[in-house]
Amino acid sequence: MSFPPDLIASFFASLSSEQGLRLFDALPDTRLFVKDANGVYMHVSQGMVLAHGFIHENAILGRTDYDFIPAYLADQYTRDDKRVLEGNEIWGRVEMVMRHPQCHDWYLTSKIPLRAKDGRIVGLAGISRDLEKTARFASPFTQLAPVLEYIREEFAAPFDLALLAQHAGMSKRSFQRHFKKAFQMTPSGYLRQFRIGKVCQMLLETDETISAIAQETGFTDHSHLIREFASAIGSTPSAYRTRYR
User: Fold this and answer.
1) Residues 6+ apart with CB under 8 A from 173
2) Can you tell me the distance from the alpha carbon of 28 to that of 49, in angstroms, rounded to the nearest whole number?
3) CATH of the domain at 216
């Protein structure tokens, strides 16, 4: 016999808004956040507070990303937020985040829209988890940890599906299926996203030419990088560098 859904709804309706959210404070490597439709933080876990060098959540609540995060990262987060506020969900996006002030690392971020009782989207909720630690210890990522480590170190190497599958100890077909289930994208899509993140980092932290960056990040040439970068970021590499430097 199925449990009456109205009793379930009644139970959750009786809880205060804070019930359950504080449990995320027990996960220091997981950042939980809730924003309203204007991108204003309404709730954050302690892990996120500490990651940004603050002591109390009041340093973040009521503020937006632009108040305490570099603009080039805030713009990236805002682009994704806009998609979510339009009704889309983002699962397993690999992105560069601030681990603490002036220090960046790679995280796995998922976001979903939050709806009012009348169906209107009034905000979003998301979590970000350290990519390496997630891959080592959390199913279904565990088997893929050697693959992510390989991509992290050899991201400029030509895409080789058979080699990646070998690192995971799977057949190519099984690896593709397992990878897409875990990350909601293909292995080639993941590699492309990782490379674009590296390009962003190099554009801001080095004075290398676009051609040199293309060569060092695995793109075939200057033109290939420009096409992929414009598709992912919405601007040319040169415009991105000029804007944020």
Assistant:
1) none
2) 10
3) 1.10.10.60
List pLDDT tens digits, range 147-157.
888 988 899 99
Is residue 69 domain-shared with residue 157, that is, in the same domain? no
pLDDT digits (tens, 9 = 90+) for 75-133: 888 989 999 999 999 887 777 665 444 445 677 889 999 999 888 999 999 998 877 66
Spatial separation of the C-alpha atoms in residues 23 and 125, rounded to whole Å: 15
Contacts of 99 (CB under 8 A, 6+ apart): 51, 105
Q: Give 97-110 pLDDT, tens digit per residue.
A: 654 444 456 778 89
Q: Are residues 182 and 115 in the same domain?
A: no
The backbone region for 105, taken as left when phi is positive above 0, alpha when psi lies in -120 to 50, beta otherwise, is beta
Domain that holds residue 155: 139-244
Query: Under a CB-based contact definition with an 8 Å cutoff, are residues 52 and 180 in contact?
Result: no
Q: What is the tally of structural domains in the chain?
A: 2
98 shares its domain with 146: no
28, 20 in Cβ contact below 8 A?
no
